[in-house]
Design brief:
Cytochrome Bc1 Complex, Chain D, domain 2; globular; about 200 residues; mainly alpha; 2 domains; 2 strands
Length: about 200
């Protein structure tokens, strides 16, 4: 009986290691079986840990810590295809997302569970926003880099992206987390109603 129990323990340990180190195709299967945390662990190990560290504390010269960044930052970078980067040190530009919606949700769940609190994914209601106020706010806070029509621009050491492909959620996430060199805006600086207006 002891040998049987020991055998089960070895199999369980091997399965746990396989889930953490599994390639993406296997991770998808785990997710679809209803275990998003395990799926997120496998996806993170495969696509994120080499730059952000197995413990999410970052790797010097490769990537920053993910502890405390929050769900909004993780979702923004993954849903806009800015992560994973082709190589460390380059500006993260918008691209086709590497991960589908389920995979992104699994990664958000894994990183926020391990990395602690941070800005959540915002709930945006553009239909409630005041269009005229949104235009004024965008002109004051955003047009200096993104231009008044949101087509993007070039600054010293950075390229401000065009905003035409961004969803309201992605715009609100960018406002709250300040991706790359963009400043972040707190709820005191830009209340949710103002973000709704800017995303209209």
């Amino acid at each position: 009986m002891r040998r049987v129990r020991a055998g089960y323990a070895v199999v369980a340990a091997a399965l746990a290691l396989w889930i953490v180190a599994a390639p993406r195709s296997a991770a998808q299967g785990v997710q679809e079986a209803g275990q998003p945390a395990a799926g997120g662990a496998a996806l993170y190990a495969d696509g994120c840990a080499s730059c952000h560290g197995a413990d999410l504390r970052g790797v010097r010269g490769r990537g920053p810590t993910l502890r405390g960044v929050g769900a909004a930052a993780v979702d923004f970078y993954l849903s806009t295809g800015r992560m994973p980067l082709a190589r460390p040190g380059i500006q993260p530009d918008r691209a086709e997302p590497v991960y589908d919606r389920r995979e992104r949700a699994a990664l958000v769940a894994f990183i926020t569970a391990r990395g602690g609190a941070g800005p959540p994914i915002p709930v945006v209601r553009p239909e409630r926003g005041d269009l005229a106020r949104g235009r004024r706010l965008f002109a004051d806070a955003c047009s200096g880099c993104h231009q008044i029509m949101g087509k993007g621009g070039i600054g010293t050491g950075f390229v401000a992206p065009g905003l035409g492909e961004a969803t309201p959620t992605q715009l609100a996430e960018a406002v709250r987390v300040g991706p790359y060199l963009m400043p972040r805006f707190s709820r005191e600086q830009l209340p949710d109603a103002d973000v709704d207006a800017m995303c209209r």
